[in-house]
Amino acid sequence: MSLSETSVLTQHAPNLWTLAHPLRLGLVEFDHVMTVVQLNDDQLWIHSPVAYSPALAQVLEALGTPTFFIAPNTFHDLYWKAWFEAYPQARFYAVPGVREAHTELPFTDVLTNKPPAEWRDAFDQHLVGGVPKINEIAFFHPASNSAILTDLVFNYETDPGFNFATRCMLKMAGTYNRRCTVSRLLRLYLRDKAAVRRSIDEIADWDFARLIVGHGQPLETKGSHALRQAYAFLSH
């Protein structure tokens, strides 16, 4: 894959950026998307951070003060140690289950359906039901009409130059050259499909245009519709 080790952020709207960084798992290499939102007083809200580097820290600090770090599900648990060391004054929020799995990491807060006071004027959020293995939380940023997800859907509409092992893995997962698709792995983890359906409906009711995902390209339009379509299989 042709992803480079870069710290260049892509701006999608005022105060909203993403960074797609290589994620290597043996021979497989795809991307891990970090989202950054600038809040009031230049505080930065950082969702699913990629690997720490001094260069990336410098880019972030040019935008504001890294203040809130988000572990949005139990799968995106890489890289945390270096961020804790770099920003000991920050607050680190995680979904239920992360602190129990990583007692060595001093997460300060547990995420729920209710946005904390620190960002309740900037976001809505929803802890997805029915998938306790990953406990993903979704966010909605009304100012940019954007939803921020992690592993609920992948969006690899085009192949940016994946190697053979990565193409095979994504084909097995059912996410290769597919628009806004639920991976076969995540489908295996669905425990209460009715609860998942209710959560997807509540998230889609935010009626967002832009959909940012943890793996793949953001959808810039009709994101809410695409999410409903991805989970249409739960209606049968």
Word description of this protein:
The chain has 236 residues and is an alpha/beta fold. The protein has one domain: 4-Layer Sandwich (Metallo-beta-lactamase, Chain A). It contains seven helices and 13 strands. It has a seven-stranded mixed beta sheet. A four-stranded mixed beta sheet has the order 8-9-10-13, with helices on one face. Strands 11-12 form a two-stranded antiparallel sheet. Helix 3 links the parallel strand 6 and strand 7. Helix 6 packs antiparallel against helix 7. The protein is globular, with a radius of gyration of 17 Å. The N and C termini lie far apart (37 Å). The model has no long low-confidence stretch (mean pLDDT 91).
Q: How confident overall, as mean pLDDT?
A: 91
How many helix segments?
Answer: 7
Distance between the termini: 37 Å
Q: Which range does the strand content fall in?
A: 25-35%
Radius of gyration from CA coordinates: 17 Å
Fold blueprint:
Elements: E1 10-13, E2 16-25, E3 28-38, E4 43-47, H1 54-63, E5 65-71, H2 80-86, E6 91-94, H3 98-101, E7 109-110, E8 124-127, E9 137-141, E10 146-148, E11 154-156, H4 164-173, E12 178-181, H5 184-188, H6 193-204, E13 210-212, H7 223-230
Parallel strand pairs: 4-5, 5-6, 6-7, 10-13
Antiparallel strand pairs: 1-2, 2-3, 3-4, 8-9, 9-10, 11-12
